[in-house]
Amino acid sequence: MTMKIKNSIFTIALAVGIILFWGACTSSNKSAEQETAEEHSHDEGDEHVSTEAMEISPDEINADELTWTPSADESDIFSNKFQFVMGSAGDLEATVSGNSVTLNLSGNTAAFVFHSKLGNIGGEVSYMLHGFKGDLKLIHHFKDAQNYEFVSVNGNQMKLGRVINGEEDIFDEKSFDTGSSGWVQLRVSAAGSHFKGYIGDENITHGHGDELEPGYVGMMIDGTGSLMIKDLKVTILDEE
Amino acid sequence: MQLIPEWAPNIHPLIIHFPIVLLLFAVFTDTISIWLQKDWLYKSTLMTYFFGALGAITAYITGRIAADTVNPPFKAELTMSNHSDWALYTVIYFSVYAILRLIFIKKLDAANKILRLAVLAVAMAGLYLLIHTADLGGKLVFKYGVGQFK
Questions:
Q1: Number of domains into which chain A is organized
Q2: ipTM score
Q3: Above 70 in pLDDT, residue A67?
């Protein structure tokens, strides 16, 4: 009888232990979330969200976002927001038309990036092809021309991958259908070891790789012909 | 008859509750079986671990498929990545645990309470992985609205 009572007490104690363990896990997650929320509200009040970005770059980051809309001043379409890391603004022969920019390329590769080094990001840009033949890339974790990650489109083919020491490593590659000719939204997300490429709302490519050190985010264009771009935006994905 | 209800974005939300319930219940019955020493309860517990691990594998696979069919906001991508990673850790942990428990079914059945408690503690530690994965999944749905609308 005494043994049975002892056993019952042990069982109840363990059951209570499980419940307390569960409660502790849930509350610790909630606390972490609350802390994150408080940090955000504080940061939003300061109109700055990334300490790292604040320290190393002159980018204006509002609500975790970097955005670019072309300047009406044609002599300063890119230089204000971007730094050219391959080629130059002259290689793009850019002209502003409304809220978009028309680029005319003659085969030289050009890449321009925001000034901030960023880790986990979501990037998007809208483009319209006017006889352009070549690769249009959203690049991120850019260290130098030999080391960066990207999502690229060439016609209706999308590639998701990275370049390490000059060697291309493709995570995923698929074709897509844009429906009608017109503006196409290209999106990429780099979250931890997960990488995704989207056309509009549709996920086209999904791949995995080791998480790289933060790097620059922007665009790389390699081809010939004319295309239009607008609404380049980068969203910083905060660690939970 | 269609397998997925018309309102459901994919089968993942219908599957995920099985491993959560089964693995929690397995730990609960495992605890009781240490003291009650009933053979039927011990064997039932092992089967619950086994089916819990199987459910976790199914949930992981359906989750991987579902991840490519939804359109999360950028802000949800990191949570989705972490959810996927923690789900994989949970699957590996409980799959290995269930297999080892089945392999050593006889030895553990005859083992003393201290050893049985130690083995139980390993399962209880695994519950943290399960709970954290579920927490991230809940955050995806209820904070970011992922998969709420077809």
A1: 2
A2: 0.82
A3: yes
